[in-house]
TrEMBL record:
Cross-referenced InterPro entries: GtrA_CellWall_Glycosyl, GtrA_DPMS_TM
Location in or out of the cell: Membrane
Protein name: GtrA/DPMS transmembrane domain-containing protein
Family, similarity comment: Belongs to the GtrA family.
Stretches that traverse the bilayer: 14-34, 40-60, 81-104, 110-130
Superkingdom classification of source: Bacteria
PANTHER family: ARABINOGALACTAN BIOSYNTHESIS RECRUITING PROTEIN RV3789 (PTHR38459:SF6), PROPHAGE BACTOPRENOL-LINKED GLUCOSE TRANSLOCASE HOMOLOG (PTHR38459)
Pfam families noted in UniProt: GtrA_DPMS_TM
Domain GtrA/DPMS transmembrane: 16-131
UniProt keyword terms in alphabetical order: Membrane, Transmembrane, Transmembrane helix
Its membrane topology: Multi-pass membrane protein
Length: 142
């Protein structure tokens, strides 16, 4: 109950997570577009953009979306999650590029698809594991 009151419950967290996600996605897509414009290899561009968006999202998610204090354990959990998601998102991006027909829209659509998959997985894991308030674990279902 204390966690819900402090953080606005799951809907409050989800709303703030969406705002953070938009900011992270703008950073991610901007870096991706810039790297592609500079003729960086598409997979390296996606990796670089993911890292930049992830760093920004961590700070915003921890302080604002989930409203929890930091700590080495939380940062380590976040890094582990995003380490796994790095390969999931890069794999999804590569798979989408491999199966989509050629066209000017294939690269941006592959980014959107990989970002959507990553965002969904991230919210669930951040809420349930990384940013769970360990001080107020209760059986209260409300």
């Amino acid at each position: 109950m204390a966690t819900q009151a402090r953080s606005g419950g799951v809907l409050g967290q989800a709303g703030r997570f969406v705002v953070v996600g938009v900011i992270g996605a703008l950073i991610d897509s901007g870096v991706y577009a810039l790297a592609l414009h500079l003729d960086v290899w598409v997979h390296a561009a996606r990796a670089l953009s993911f890292v930049c968006g992830t760093i920004a999202a961590y700070a915003l998610n921890r302080r604002w979306a989930f409203r929890v204090s930091g700590g080495a354990r939380r940062a380590t959990s976040y890094a582990a999650l995003y380490g796994v998601m790095f390969f999931v998102i890069l794999g999804a991006n590569a798979l989408a590029l491999a199966v989509l027909p050629a066209g000017w829209w294939a690269v941006p659509l592959a980014w959107v698809l990989s970002q959507g998959l990553g965002t969904t997985c991230n919210f669930v894991m951040l809420r349930l594991v990384v940013f769970r308030d360990r001080r107020s674990v209760t059986a209260d279902p409300s």
